[in-house]
Amino acid sequence: MSHEHGNDTPHREHSHVPPDPALRVQALESLLTRKGLVDPGALETIIDTYANRVGPRNGARVVARSWANPDYRQWLLDDATAAIAHLGYEGRQGEHMVALENTDSVHNLVVCTLCSCYPWTVLGIPPGWYKSEAYRARAVREPRAVLEEFGVRLDDEVEVRLWDSTAEIRYLVIPQRPAGTHGWTEEALATLVTRDSMVGTGLALTPEQAGDAP
């Protein structure tokens, strides 16, 4: 069927949608604002809440609790959704959680190959690189190369396990607890947990890197 008639405007519009996810979001936000469907002030509040206040700090507290409390760590590994909700972190984008524990022999890496499924309740808004086509494709093809670009260099003996986040299941990586933190409080331990370490593209900070003391 020909598309050269006067009703092909939607086709032309879609063909000019920016390829980069961040640009697509910006374009959509501008369109909704112009039509009066979105209040820019309310939108900024939501973004600030998830990016800074809710964001990765929630996940850091979950990880810190698992480091300090073996019983909680086992609960987190057995039923992450319930264990995370126990700390008050639940809601959309975090209904079905699975915790993945990094060890001396296994390093876990999370990607969403289809779009950008991400556990907002514990990690906040997904970063631009997580949503990019380059990360989604290369993490599958060459995970070790991607990790090295993030500054994570693993021994050849360490197995890299890739996990594909979906609308049904989202993942939280429990990074290894840094040495030299024995006796630290959960609050102090949480300062060592980064967003990237909970995705698998980073490691937890050492006490020296964080510049923190218990």
Description:
This protein has 214 residues and is mainly α. It has one domain: Alpha-Beta Complex (Nitrile Hydratase, Chain A). Helices cover 49% and strands 10% of the residues. The chain has helices at residues 9-15, 21-34, 40-68, 70-78, 80-86, 120-123, 128-131, 133-141, 143-149, 186-190, 195-199, 207-210, and strands at residues 97-101, 106-111, 159-164, 170-174. The strands form two sheets. Strands 1-4 form a two-stranded parallel sheet. Strands 2-3 form a two-stranded parallel sheet. It is globular, with a radius of gyration of 20 Å.
What is the terminal-to-terminal distance?
69 Å
Largest sheet: 2 strands, parallel
| CATH superfamily placement | Nitrile hydratase alpha /Thiocyanate hydrolase gamma
Strand order of the largest sheet: 1-4
Count of domains: 1
Helix content: 40-55%
| DSSP strand tally | 4
Query: What does the oligomeric state look like here?
Result: single chain
Output the structural class.
mainly alpha
Identify the notable features of this structure and list them briefly.
single chain; 214 residues; mainly alpha; Nitrile Hydratase, Chain A; two-stranded parallel sheet; 12 helices; 49% helix; disordered N terminus
What would a concise description of this structure say?
The chain is mainly α and 214 residues long. The chain contains twelve helices and four strands, in the order H-H-H-H-H-E-E-H-H-H-H-E-E-H-H-H.
